[in-house]
């Protein structure tokens, strides 16, 4: 390797080696991109995740239904007066994840609670109308949510998330 | 792998590991300090190229398996969904599919190199036999992989190849049933082939380790065929061989990328874009090009069992080569007769490959028999004979002498041989397309805006074509792999998301069951696929006089016609691959009101100049003025035909523009890398000469 001839142009030689190495490294990095990107949801999965519409008329007061959006269960509860009151009575600052009930429902549609039914602890599905707060109870590790879907007890760190949705009419919502 | 290494890491942590597991020493002695003969030519880089290809195939294969569904009802569709919907799925599939061909191309060069330079001779017999085992495993893996897309060729290839075992006396039928897991090729067969196709590459990798181990024990052969004697005869593997191999791999990648980005279907069979149908055998069952020579041998023997034995014998005979050729001189460079016969043998192999793709009739059978005889005669008669009668020229004293003697350089010779081999490979590869669409006239070649390396779809033509499809074709033909959302995707007909949504909502789509358990109809959404006009194949046949109007999603890729020699060779360089669109356009315009005199047109058929056999069940679908264009294009059959074909070409390959664009970038990059590697390699080797 180290003969007289190579010592003649050390800088030019080094430049060649560095350039080759750099170009090869760029190529290797660019190759990794498609190999990783293919793991993301494919186009048909993304398209299937388009917004869905749900008709609320069949849900009686005190009842709830579960629909699926993007493979996730969404709870839609038609809350009773009592449940709404319970949710609004508690001082927000005393909650583990402070959020008022008003922030979690759409104005003028206070009776409708729409939450993603996935426990924020480790992803089990909480059971509706269970637990000490008449909201949701997660059987996996005992997280308890109230009638606003807020965490009250147990290992889950945050409230049940509210998915993006809008009221198309008084009896119809669009999720997504 | 060549004895204890004196490699000692300086880092204490590495030292700690090295004392307990000397893996760095192993790597160092195998791939860094390992002495490699200094006179190796570029034929020796194919070993590295093959290792690289094995890695590429395993990597892309593992990824494709993440998206593939090994079920007879879903396999074909899942492959299409990979290509259409998975991010870069089209790229991964093209790499894997043409990668198989590249792998075989490289292995054939590697084997011929071993043959020419006597690399199988003492003390490298085991090394060579391990190589033959790898080759056999590759053939099994390649075959099972070809079955997985579950197209017509997959299915019938699987049927024919598994039926080879029925030639075994007494147990034949039971063996075949065992292979199938049923009474015919079906879902269980597909499932086990998938399992084995995933397993075998790792077995290959294991045998490759043994192959390299044996190589490092015996040492590499070299063009002079004399063993290294002194330090002067060798150079350390790194950086010398490493740089040379990297340059070789880079050149090979250029060749490979041509297929991936520009000719992805050149080596494939149009027939395999038709879903497997156990009721219809394609007119010509042709295996992939790399099996063709053996297929020709199989067909040239008129007895079933003997044919199968000859075919397997043609491969197994390679394992006995070290003992069939007992000549002391290794390299054919110094064997004037062996050298000439070697090249004749190469021609025989290419000839067999060509014949394997031709219909087994007439002159082809006779020539096939002659070449089969010559193939075996080379191993069984010629090589043993030459070892006894040939007078070899004196070999050089040492490798260093050999290097000094030929500083004139043999580069032209190498490139000439590469040209010959490439032409041969293409001849065989292109032979697939040499099969004529029997009984149909050749459609005239059209000008398409999407052909060539910079080809793009014409949005206007696609939008008009969609209109023609919707108003005419859709009453009988489905388009089931195309979703409404695709109409708004980049590279498509150029509609906006809102337009695609509006288009979708004009369709009624069956959905359900609802809460009452009933199916219901609702307006289409972008995520829905074009609904098919008939609920199932039986209904379609009943409504169309017994003929099944094929789904049009892939029609432009599933139809082809023979280009003939030498056009298909030229096509490789001009990137001509529009046989499908040419045929579809010609067919739509090819109706004659009256069949020519003497042609017996069956009841309920129509005469079409370009349809194979001329009698087509589809009545003339297009008439002048039938569809109104609002952009002022002529409302003629010729225009309709071209537009709808244009649209269907996109439907068959929605990512074609992305493929060609990325191809350009990759080529710019690869050329730059190859040039840099060339100069780096030259600089590094300047010290060795
Ligand atoms: S997952 Fe719900 S409590 Fe752990």
Automatic annotation (TrEMBL), chain A:
Cofactor(s) the protein needs: [2Fe-2S] cluster
PROSITE patterns attached to this UniProt entry: RIESKE, TAT
The keyword Translocase is annotated on this UniProt entry: yes
Domain of life where this protein originates: Bacteria
TM region positions: 15-36
Annotated Rieske domain residues: 87-174
Biological role stated in the UniProt entry: Component of the ubiquinol-cytochrome c reductase complex (complex III or cytochrome b-c1 complex), which is a respiratory chain that generates an electrochemical potential coupled to ATP synthesis.
Official protein name in the record: Ubiquinol-cytochrome c reductase iron-sulfur subunit
């Amino acid at each position: 390797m180290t003969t007289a001839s190579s010592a003649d142009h050390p800088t030019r030689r080094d430049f060649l080696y560095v350039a080759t190495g750099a170009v090869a490294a760029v190529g290797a990095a660019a190759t990794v991109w498609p190999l990783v990107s293919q793991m993301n949801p494919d186009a048909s999965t993304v398209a299937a995740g388009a917004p869905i519409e749900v008709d609320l008329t069949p849900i009686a007061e005190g009842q709830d239904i579960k629909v699926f959006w993007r493979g996730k269960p969404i709870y839609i509860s038609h809350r009773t007066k009592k449940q709404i009151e319970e949710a609004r009575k508690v001082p927000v600052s005393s909650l583990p994840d402070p959020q008022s009930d008003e922030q979690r429902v759409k104005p003028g549609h206070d009776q409708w609670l729409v939450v993603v039914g996935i426990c924020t602890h480790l992803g089990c599905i909480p059971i509706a109308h269970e637990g000490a707060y008449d909201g949701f109870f997660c059987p996996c590790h005992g997280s308890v949510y109230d009638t606003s879907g807020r965490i009250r007890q147990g290992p889950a760190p945050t409230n049940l998330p509210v998915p993006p949705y809008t009221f198309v009419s008084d009896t119809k919502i669009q999720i997504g | 792998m060549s004895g204890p290494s004196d490699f000692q890491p300086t880092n204490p942590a590495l030292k700690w590991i090295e004392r307990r597991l000397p893996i760095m020493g192993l790597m160092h002695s195998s791939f860094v300090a390992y002495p490699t003969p200094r006179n190796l030519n570029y034929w020796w880089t194919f070993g590295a190229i093959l290792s690289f290809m094995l890695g590429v195939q395993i990597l892309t294969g593992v990824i494709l398996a993440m998206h593939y569904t090994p079920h007879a009802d879903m396999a074909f569709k899942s492959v299409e969904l990979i290509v259409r919907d998975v991010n870069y799925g089209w790229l991964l599939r093209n790499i894997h599919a043409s990668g198989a061909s590249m792998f075989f191309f490289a292995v054939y060069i590697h084997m011929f190199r071993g043959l020419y330079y006597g690399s199988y001779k003492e003390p490298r017999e085991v090394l060579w036999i391990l190589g033959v085992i790898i080759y056999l495993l590759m053939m099994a893996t390649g075959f099972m992989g070809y079955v997985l897309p579950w197209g017509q060729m997959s299915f019938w290839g699987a049927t024919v190849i598994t039926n080879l075992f029925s030639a075994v006396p007494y147990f034949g039928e039971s063996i075949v049933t065992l292979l199938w897991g049923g009474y015919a090729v079906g879902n269980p067969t597909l499932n086990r082939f998938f399992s084995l196709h995933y397993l075998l590459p790792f077995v290959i990798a294991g045998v490759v380790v043994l192959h390299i181990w044996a190589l490092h024990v015996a040492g590499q052969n070299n063009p002079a065929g004399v063993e290294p004697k002194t330090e002067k005869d060798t150079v350390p593997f790194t950086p010398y061989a490493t740089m040379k191999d990297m340059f070789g791999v880079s050149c090979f990648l250029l060749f490979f990328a041509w297929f991936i980005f520009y000719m992805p279907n050149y080596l494939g069979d149009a027939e395999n874009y038709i879903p497997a149908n156990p009721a219809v055998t394609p007119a010509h069952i042709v295996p992939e090009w790399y099996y063709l020579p053996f297929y020709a041998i199989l067909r040239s023997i008129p007895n079933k069992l003997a044919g199968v034995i000859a075919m397997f014998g043609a491969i197994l005979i390679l394992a006995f080569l070290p003992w069939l050729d007992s000549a002391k001189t290794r390299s054919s460079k110094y064997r004037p007769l062996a050298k000439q016969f070697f090249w004749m043998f190469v021609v025989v192999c290419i000839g067999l490959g060509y014949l394997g793709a031709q219909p087994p009739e007439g002159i082809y059978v006779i020539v096939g028999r002659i070449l089969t005889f010559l193939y075996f005669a080379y191993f069984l008669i010629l090589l043993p004979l030459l070892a006894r009668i040939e007078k070899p020229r004196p070999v050089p004293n040492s490798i260093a002498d050999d290097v000094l003697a030929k500083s004139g350089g043999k580069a032209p010779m190498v490139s000439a041989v590469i040209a010959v081999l490439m032409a041969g490979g293409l001849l065989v590869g292109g032979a697939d397309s040499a099969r004529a669409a029997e009984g149909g006239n050749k459609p005239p070649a059209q000008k398409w805006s999407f052909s060539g390396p910079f080809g793009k779809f014409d949005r206007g033509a696609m939008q008009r074509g969609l209109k023609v499809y919707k108003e005419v074709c859709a009453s009988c033909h489905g388009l089931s792999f195309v979703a409404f959302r695709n109409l708004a995707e980049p590279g498509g007909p150029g509609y906006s998301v809102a337009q695609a949504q509006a288009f979708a909502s004009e369709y009624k789509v069956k959905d359900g069951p609802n809460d009452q358990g009933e199916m219901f109809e609702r307006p289409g959404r972008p995520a829905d696929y074009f609904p098919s006009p008939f609920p199932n194949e039986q209904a379609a046949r009943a409504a169309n006089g017994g003929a099944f109007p094929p789904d049009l999603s892939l029609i432009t890729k599933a139809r082809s016609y023979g280009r003939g020699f030498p056009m298909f060779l030229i096509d490789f360089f001009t990137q001509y691959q529009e046989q499908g669109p040419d045929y579809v356009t010609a067919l739509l315009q090819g109706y004659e009101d009256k069949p020519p005199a003497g042609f017996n047109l069956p009841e309920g058929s129509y005469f079409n100049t370009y349809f194979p056999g001329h009698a087509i069940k589809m009545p003339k679908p297009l008439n002048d003025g039938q569809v109104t264009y609002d952009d002022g294009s002529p409302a003629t059959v010729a225009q309709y035909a071209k537009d709808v074909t244009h649209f269907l070409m996109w439907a068959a390959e929605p990512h074609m523009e992305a493929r060609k664009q990325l191809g350009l970038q990759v080529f710019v990059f690869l050329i730059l890398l190859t040039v840099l590697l060339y100069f780096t390699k030259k600089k590094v080797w300047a010290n060795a000469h």
